[in-house]
Amino acid sequence: LREREERFRLIAENGGDVISLYATEGRLVYISPSCERVLGFLPEEMPRMAPFATVHPQDYDRLQRHFSQLLRGEPVGSIQVRMLHKTGRHIWLEMMWRAVMDENGHVAQLQVSSRDITDSKQNERRLEEAGEEVVGRHLALAARPPHHHRAPQRQ
Fold this sequence. Notes:
Blueprint: H1 2-14, E1 18-23, E2 28-31, H2 34-39, H3 57-71, E3 79-84, E4 90-101, E5 107-116, H4 118-143
Antiparallel strand pairs: 1-2, 1-5, 3-4, 4-5
């Protein structure tokens, strides 16, 4: 058990993802030190905040539904949400949630692994904008009246 805990600690403290544990009422129980690199907050600052306080307002309800589904034991996939960075900007996180069950098969805690996907989201947006520009140009060309060329007359 001690070896397993040590392995978990090494992964949590040195991995790129932010690892968190939440109590079933939404209180943050643990967050890995990588939260400082990803979110700008120290690990000891995060538990003092209200549950999901850093979630973007437009993503809050969706994340709450996700959390509730997990508590009911429903399977869920990953979820992408915007979170407030300590600098005041929002970053995109992909969050992989899983329920941690107690010995009676009830949800005891929720564990989440969060990865910063801000760069990917920005690249995705740039590609969408470029695609929209190409489509717009194509439509503009298609809307032009056709050019009528006269064939050279033969003599």
